[in-house]
Amino acid sequence: EVHLEESGGDLVQPGGSLRLSCAASGFMFSSYWMSWVRQAPGKGLEWVANIKQDGSEEYYVDSVKGRFTISRDNAKKSVYLQMNSLRVEDTALYYCARVVGVVRMWWFDPWGQGTLVTVSS
Amino acid sequence: SYVLTQPPSVSVAPGKTARISCGGKDIGSKSVHWYQQKPGQAPVVVIYYDGDRPSGIPERISGSNSGNMATLTISWVEAGDEADYYCQVWDSSSDQGVFGGGTKLTVL
Q1: CB 3.0 to 4.6 Å from B91: which of A52, A60, B2, B19, for a disulfide?
Q2: Does A94 touch chain B (CB under 8 A)?
Q3: Contact A104/B33, CB-based, under 8 Å?
Q4: Does residue B1 belong to the interface with chain A, where contact is any CB pair within 8 Å?
């Protein structure tokens, strides 16, 4: 069974940093792009970042460019999101998701259960 | 950046048909995917590539896409269909994922 489990969410002050992790199991991790998607409390879904199978390509939503970095370790079957210069508006439940489909016609399946990041003073 | 527009809410009686729209400029030229999210749960894909269903998704859930509008159709609506629904595309011009704002489906 394909399974994704996020961790690392916490309460952090504005301007602070946090690193999220996502452990994958049940599929050939190194063969898939991976993604982070977030959902602010009571709000809709927002795609955050994608990373290619070998880590050679990364894409980001404009609002996190220069502040967030997605990375992966295929040996550990894990994907990470390093978040720096955090803002109150980054407060959200962060989901890890597998990227599937034809290149640039992608969708996300499955999703983990999410890890909560709260940015507040 | 590319924008997808969904109605905030749709209400339908049990046994009737619900249609949830997703508008975007020339969305018919893109592949549209749809997710169902129930309270406290992660999203689950119910339609991919405009109209394909993953295994386990009933045939009464279907999708279409043409021109500037994609539509998710749920026939014979049941109480268990009550959820938030999101459309999604990949915008190749910016290489970014895009979600619609979501539609809350209420079963009366």
Answers
A1: B2
A2: no
A3: no
A4: yes
* Residue that is written with structure tokens 């390093």 in the block: A82
The pLDDT profile of chain B, 108 residues, written as one tens digit per residue, is 999 999 999 999 999 999 999 999 999 999 999 999 999 999 999 999 999 999 999 999 999 999 999 999 999 999 999 999 999 999 999 999 999 999 999 999
* Contact A5/B at CB under 8 A: no
CB–CB contact A50 B97 (8 Å): yes
Question: A45 vs B99: CB contact, 8 Å cut-off?
Answer: yes
CA distances from A78 to A20, A35, A48, B1, B84 (A): 10, 11, 17, 30, 29
Q: Could you tell me the two tokens for A109?
A: 């399946």
B8 has which bridge partners? none
Contact A35, A52 (CB under 8 A): no
Answer yes or no: do A47 and B97 touch at CB < 8 A.
Answer: yes
Q: What is the DSSP string of A64-114?
A: GTTTEEEEEETTTTEEEEEE-S--GGG-EEEEEEEEESSTTS-EEEEE---
B26 touching A (Cβ < 8 Å): no
Distances (CA, A) of B22 to A30, B5, B103: 33, 5, 9
